[in-house]
Design goal:
Chain lengths: ~260, ~210
């Protein structure tokens, strides 16, 4: 049986992780390569790097990080943030990432999904979706709208339709982030996750709102997610991945228990 | 020296990095002479069967692989490389190498996958899963029952001779996830992306002396 994946997400700016990440021994680690190694050893099933470097000119720094991570850990990892062109995708994949995630660039130009899938294979292309609840309307029948710029710009696109379109265009996976839940630590947006996961045949990673192991249990069962993204709950040493996994395992959620 | 066969089928550097990490000398190449000289061969691949077979033929690597099989050189297939070893693939109805008798089947054709949307069985089969070994294969020495491996695929190998199924994996049903005969062993999963158990398999392969 396929395991549900637990995926730590690291924000990287100009080659350093942005939140001073603290493990239980209280050591601050700002080096994404060392962080990746720690999470690899700690039982992460995959790692997501999100490049928040503002300037496109400094993207080479991230490529260097990707290359070093690929020499250090031997599990899949993906890179998102600032991916705008096929060249950007190629750079990240050749540097050793397993997958590349497109978000706002795909909203503006959906063809980047099909071009990416054509060039590198669907399994490489993750569609990142930032979503906000706006209420049901004629234009947004599901009530969930696609947003960009960290939730500041509404795109007038229904999230449910966009997820189906993304699959049709060749995305191999969806990383579904609820802007409403993000940062709350009150749990994932279960209604949204269940809606999207039931409507597509490709795997869905739930993102935004994780604060306690129960939240992962909820989104991986009721929310029907295939994987769960986590950040602060492990970055600050509140929980270890092993603790989260044994919580899930005890409640009958299949996870990778040996690593 | 292990040679990783380069036939324009995806990024092969991850296999090379994993081997280098465990101290195994390796070379990514499509040079026939280097393949002939290699002590053992890894035949990886990501992508579609049709274009992969065309590349193999264009580079005349299909002949080089058949020759290596014939003289008993140890060969490890990975993912698409594993599928291409069989006779034909459902993917683009492709004629493959036919080194092992059998076909490559699509998950989407099987009954449990007919329920649309969430049935617990999405395609591709993407993520970590266990394998059940059917025989004690030296390449899998030290692999524990609950070790898991990283899979990404929509098609799976189906050898005609069930004795050539080395291990199966449960995804809706038990599909062959490792196949092999004599000097060939081939995994549907990616050992280079499967953490420590995956590195164990690569290390074992680098020492394997098929009888």
């Amino acid at each position: 049986m396929l395991s549900k994946r637990i995926i730590p997400c690291l924000d990287v700016r100009e080659g350093r992780t942005t939140k001073g990440v603290k493990f239980k021994n209280n050591i601050d680690i700002g080096d994404p390569v060392e962080m990746a190694l720690l999470y690899y050893e700690a039982g992460a099933d995959e790692i997501v790097f999100y490049d928040i470097t503002a300037s496109h000119e400094k993207r080479d720094i991230m490529i260097d990080v990707v290359r070093k991570v690929a020499e250090t850990i031997f599990i899949p990892f993906s890179v998102g943030g600032g991916i705008r062109t096929l060249e950007d995708m190629r750079d990240v994949l050749l540097a050793g990432a397993e997958k590349v995630s497109v978000n706002s660039a795909a909203v503006k130009d959906p063809e980047i999904i099909s071009k990416g899938a054509e060039a590198f294979g669907s399994q490489c292309i993750v569609l990142g979706m930032d979503v906000k609840y706006v209420g049901k309307s004629e234009k947004i029948p599901s009530g969930y709208e696609i947003v960009i710029n960290g939730g500041r710009t509404y795109m007038g696109i229904d999230a449910l339709k966009w997820a189906k379109d993304g699959q049709q265009l060749g995305a191999g996976e969806i990383c579904l982030n609820s802007i409403d839940a993000d940062g709350t630590k009150d749990g994932y947006e279960l209604t949204l996750t269940e809606l999207i996961s039931s409507a597509v045949d490709i795997p869905v990673i739930a993102s935004g709102g994780a604060g306690r192991p129960e939240h992962l249990y909820d989104v991986l069962t009721a929310g029907k997610a295939d994987a769960a993204l986590i950040a602060s709950m492990v970055h600050y040493g509140t929980y270890t991945i092993a603790e989260i996994k044994s919580f899930l395992d005890e409640r009958g959620v299949k996870v990778r228990a040996s690593w | 020296m292990i040679v990783i066969i380069d036939y324009d089928a995806g990024n092969l550097t991850s296999v090379s990095r994993a081997l280098s990490h465990i101290g195994v000398k390796n070379l990514i190449t499509n040079d026939i002479k280097s393949i002939e000289d290699a002590e053992r061969i890894i035949f990886p691949g990501v992508g579609a069967a049709g274009s992969a077979m065309r590349s193999l033929a264009r580079l005349e690597l299909d002949i080089a692989i058949r020759d290596a099989v014939k003289i008993g050189k140890p060969i490890l297939g990975i993912c698409l490389g594993t599928q291409i070893i069989l006779a034909s693939s459902r993917e683009n109805q492709t004629e493959c190498l036919g080194i092992i008798d059998g076909t490559v089947k699509a998950f989407s054709d099987s009954e449990v996958f007919q329920i649309k949307g969430y049935s617990g069985f999405k395609i591709p089969h993407m993520g970590w899963n266990r394998i059940s070994l059917r025989t004690d294969h030296p390449v899998f020495a030290g692999v524990k029952k609950d070790d898991e491996f990283y899979f990404v695929h929509s098609y799976y190998p189906s050898p005609t001779d069930l004795n050539q199924v080395v291990a199966t994996t449960d995804y809706g049903f038990d599909f062959p996830s490792v196949i092999g005969m004599k000097n060939i062993v081939a995994t549907q999963f990616h050992p280079e992306k499967s953490g420590k158990p995956g590195l164990t398999i690569l290390k074992n392969f680098s020492d394997w002396e098929p009888c």
